[in-house]
Amino acid sequence: RAPTTEEAMKNAGRRRRTDTGTSGRAGDAPTGRVEPPSSRYTAYDEGNIFRVSVPSNWRELPDNDTVTFAPRDGYGTYKGQTVYTHGIQIGLTRNEAHDLQTATDDLVNAFAQGNPDMGRPSRYERVTVDGRRSLRTTISNRNEVTRDPETIQLVTTDLGNSQLLYSVGVAPSTAFGSYRGVFDRILRSIRIAD
Description:
By secondary structure, this protein is α+β, with helices and mostly antiparallel strands. 18% of the residues lie in helices and 42% in strands. It has helices at residues 5-11, 100-113, 176-189; strands at residues 16-17, 41-46, 50-55, 58-62, 66-71, 75-78, 81-84, 87-94, 125-129, 132-142, 149-160, 163-172, 191-192.
C-alpha cells in the first residue's frame, strides 16, 4: 500500500543519497541566475517511497510533505517560505476523488488559491510515470520573488490507495523549452516503491 503523507514524513529522515554530493539548505531569496543543469545525474531514495535521478548540480531540499531539487541560487527563503525559480518539487497528497483528472483539478485549484498570479492549466496530456497512468499540464505563473514570468509543468500520478504523487517543475518562461527535457528525464527516472 502507498504510505500516507504522515508516514512519508516520518520516513523523510531516512532519505539516502546514492551518489556523492551535498544536500542543500534554503538561505537568502533566490537570484534566479543559475548554471545550466548538469548532464550527469545523481540518484536519491526518498523515504522508501520512490527513487529519482536529478542533475548532479541540483540540491535536495526536503520539507514536511515534499522534496525539492533545485540548483544553487535557484532556491532560497522569501517571506519565511522556501521558494525556487528553477527546479522540481515532488510530493504526495491524498486522492479523495479516486479519479486522476478530478484529483489533478483539485490540486491545481489548491495551488491557485495560494497564488493569484497562476494562469489556467493547458490541456491534460496522458503520460506514464514508472508505468502508471499520469497526467501532465503546463501552467503560466509569475514568480513571487523575481516577478518574472515562469512556466510550471505539473505531472500527477495515481498511486492507488487514495494517494497521488505529483511533480511541479518550474523554470522561467524564457528557459522552459530547455528545462522541459530535464523535467521529463527526471520523471522517466522515477521508480515507485510498491
